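Residues and backbone
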Amino acid sequence: MCTGGCAKCLGGTLIPLAVLCTLANILLFFPGGKVVKENEHITTEVWYFGGILGSGVLMIFPALVFLGLQNNDCCGCCGNRGCGQRFAMFSSIIFAAIGVVGAGYCFILSAVALNKGPKCFTIGGWTYPFRDGDYLRDHRLWHLCLSPANIVPWHLTLFSLLLVMSLIQGILCAIQVVNGLFGTLCGNCKGCGCCGGDGTV
């Protein structure tokens, strides 16, 4: 597969992942699927918008750039199309790096939130009843959260999805860094000998 075709495939995969991460982050504003009366009753990490900003907005830009690489017909330097294609692939490395940063931001926030546990109402009021991920190993501790109902599985499921999807996004962007490097160094497919010699990236 040519470097441009590979980038297009990566971009097409990143977009649905970005949408799913955004939706997961939005759902976290409704603990247990319920609307809470006070904003401070929502887990702090939700307000950092890891899924909306990190794996959502910041991921859309790299995805759109990747999707457009295969059809890039930039005239390049002084009319040299191959030079333009190399520059386009080089620019994709920069956007891929932005994607890695966004995915990393979401991944770290999700990991912290999973280890910390949800904020819920306990016999001592609204607090974080779990410590160092103990609730992940011992489900009997879940009863410490009296409300909202099903807050623990809700928190666990959505942040786990964000963790996994942001990891996948980071890997895909890292692949594009390597792919973009090949495209920058080799230029078109004909130069690299990776296609049938049609000269497209």
Summary: The helical segments are 3-27, 50-69, 81-116, 134-137, 151-186, 189-192. Residues 3-192 form one domain. The first strand starts at residue 120 and ends at 122.
